[in-house]
Design brief:
The chain has about 120 residues and is mainly β. It is built from no helices and 13 strands. The strands form two sheets. Strands 2, 4, 6, 7, 9, 10, 12 and 13 form an eight-stranded parallel beta sheet that branches. The protein has a five-stranded parallel beta sheet with strand order 1-3-5-8-11, with no helix packed on it.
């Protein structure tokens, strides 16, 4: 599924084996849950979830790009953000001009973020 527009729903689920491609920065209003073997290609964009993000199923993959110190792919939830500890994170760095020591928050949740948040 390629997300080209914002989603407005109480709950959105990406089922087992599903793939989500982000085409530009978009938002999901409502909770977003993903099932096992889910893959997400955020690139250098922002996916805002106005609710909870639950990717706590096993064998999930998140693909992000870092374009610069201020432009990078990330997921921000207004609720909690849970990602399985065994998930795979693929980072593609597209710039050689990122200062040493630069930190990036790639998944955040206002209500807490981490494994099983």
């Amino acid at each position: 599924m390629t997300l080209q527009n914002d989603i407005y729903a109480t709950s959105t689920t990406v089922y087992a084996g599903g793939t989500l491609f982000l085409n530009g920065s978009h938002s999901v209003t409502g909770n977003l849950a993903v099932a096992t073997k889910w893959r997400c290609f955020v690139g250098g964009e922002l996916l805002t979830i106005n609710g909870n993000f639950n990717a706590s199923a096993a064998n999930t993959t998140l693909n992000l790009s870092i374009n610069s110190a201020s432009v990078f792919g990330h997921i921000a939830a207004t609720g909690t953000a849970a990602l399985n500890a065994s998930s795979t994170l693929n980072l593609t760095v597209l710039s050689s001009n990122i200062p040493n020591g630069t930190t990036f928050t790639i998944i955040s949740g206002a209500g807490g973020a981490g494994p099983g948040a």
